[in-house]
Amino acid sequence: MTQPPVGAAPQRRWYREPFVWLCITPPLTAVLAGIVTTIIAVQGFDGVVIDDYYKKGLAINRVIERDQRAAAMGLSARFDYDHTVRTLTVHIEAPDPESLPATLVARLLHATRGGFDHQVTLERTPAGTWFAPEPPLARGHYHVQVEEADWRLTGDIYE
Fold first, then answer.
1. Is residue 54 situated within a structural domain?
2. How many folded domains does the chain comprise?
């Protein structure tokens, strides 16, 4: 084995050179970030875009008509969710409350996660409100829709 010339600095191994690490770190960081992103994408399901999105887009006009019909009938609603006993109460203001059905269907649509949506049947109480026990809701913002064949009332609750 040959000796380095007298007075010359001894050669260091490649992994002891700071410039090598300066060159290796950015691509290595990008590869690791790509692996982490792939793991998050595979494990987290965020819902699928429906196949007939165009038909659903056209159907929005019928939904708006149902909201307008409820307003023309003089209907309005207030939605209360009791966190402690997990019940949904709907107070509907109407010119003729007796004309409203004894049961209504309410859909609770999570604002960001479709898998957390619920549908419940509301029963009329003697006090003139509609009530339903609700299974535990995931934390978050819910859009509530109470609907009949020709009208729909909407609101929001927060769990």
1. no
2. 2
Burial class (CB in 10 A: 0-12, 13-18, 19+), 92: buried
**Number of other CB atoms surrounding residue 11 within 10 Å:** 8
Would you say residue 69 lies in a domain? no
Asked whether 122 and 107 are in contact (CB, 8 A), the reply is no
Taking only the tens place, the pLDDT of each residue in 16-49 is: 999 999 999 999 999 999 999 999 988 877 666 6
- pLDDT tens digits along 88-138: 889 999 898 888 888 999 998 888 887 888 888 999 988 888 988 877 788
What residues make up the domain containing 20?
14-43
Instruction: Name the residue with tokens 């090598």.
Output: 20
Query: Could you give the maximum distance between any two Cα atoms of the chain, in Å?
Result: 107
CA gap 1, 54 in Å, rounded:
77
Residue 18 C-beta-side C-alpha neighbours within 13 Å: 0
How far is C-alpha 104 from the chain's CA centre? 24
